[in-house]
Design goal:
The protein is of the alpha/beta class and 226 residues long. Helices cover 35% and strands 29% of the residues. Helix 4 (119-127) runs parallel beside helix 6 (153-164) and helix 5 crosses helix 7 (188-207).
């Protein structure tokens, strides 16, 4: 498909792939970072109405900018049962305590789904569950989980896009970090991660009907619903 600037937005995403063992050079001494190879995928998504998820809001910003709090406040505007899809993994005591605290703070109207990898499946289950609002928190950790778990990143991105475009009547709030405004990361894996998350953010922002940028706790609407 040729890209028409008037109707389409295009992004080139570099996905890490592992070469065959015979092609790796000193995998033990070099470590996992040195054996990352890349291929490019041209991802084209339409900006016309039939490719916009009308009920999806992307909430993006820096660390501690108020993204999650704003997503929950927006979700709480909807009466009835709501779903919270968490991508964080309780890998240590601190994270376990944080997850438990946040779950308690959300209250009984929120059902929590913990899914670090199969986000598209968790979303579709929630969307079919009759929830008035769904919060996904967050894409930042999801991409990290995919990258470190050597998942099929391209397939996961496309599956999530398809799921979001079929969200039904639920109002969906997606939290993600803007990680591309600082210095260039020193290590290869960090640069791969930054590129992947940046391109996923563009993909989700392209299909979302609304995008909110959080600055020091202040929501700035940078894309408004038509």
């Amino acid at each position: 498909m040729n890209c028409n600037p008037g109707n389409y937005r295009c992004a080139t995403i570099r996905f890490p792939v592992r070469p065959a063992a015979s092609q790796r050079s000193s995998p033990i001494s070099d470590g996992p970072l040195s054996v990352l190879h890349f291929h490019q995928v041209r991802v084209t998504y339409s900006s016309v109405s039939d490719r916009i998820a009308n009920n999806v809001t992307l909430i993006i910003g820096g660390a501690r900018s108020g993204k999650s709090a704003f997503a929950l406040s927006e979700g709480n505007l909807h009466p009835g049962k709501k779903a919270f899809i968490a991508t964080a993994q309780a890998l240590d005591h601190e994270m376990k305590a944080r997850i438990a605290r946040h779950k308690e703070e959300r209250g009984p109207e929120w059902d929590t789904f913990e899914e670090p990898v199969r986000l598209d499946e968790a979303f579709l289950i929630s969307a079919a569950g009759g929830y008035k609002a769904i919060v996904i928190d967050c894409l930042t950790l999801w991409v990290s989980n995919l990258l470190l778990g050597e998942e099929a990143v391209e397939e996961k991105f496309r599956s999530l896009e398809t799921a979001l475009l079929s969200c039904g009547d639920s109002s969906v709030y997606i939290v993600s970090n803007e990680v591309g405004m600082g210095i260039v990361p020193e290590y290869p894996l960090s640069r791969v991660y930054r590129d992947l998350l940046g391109n996923l953010n563009k993909l989700v922002a392209g299909i979302a009907s609304r995008v909110v940028y959080m600055v020091a706790g202040i929501p700035v609407e940078i894309k408004k619903r038509p």
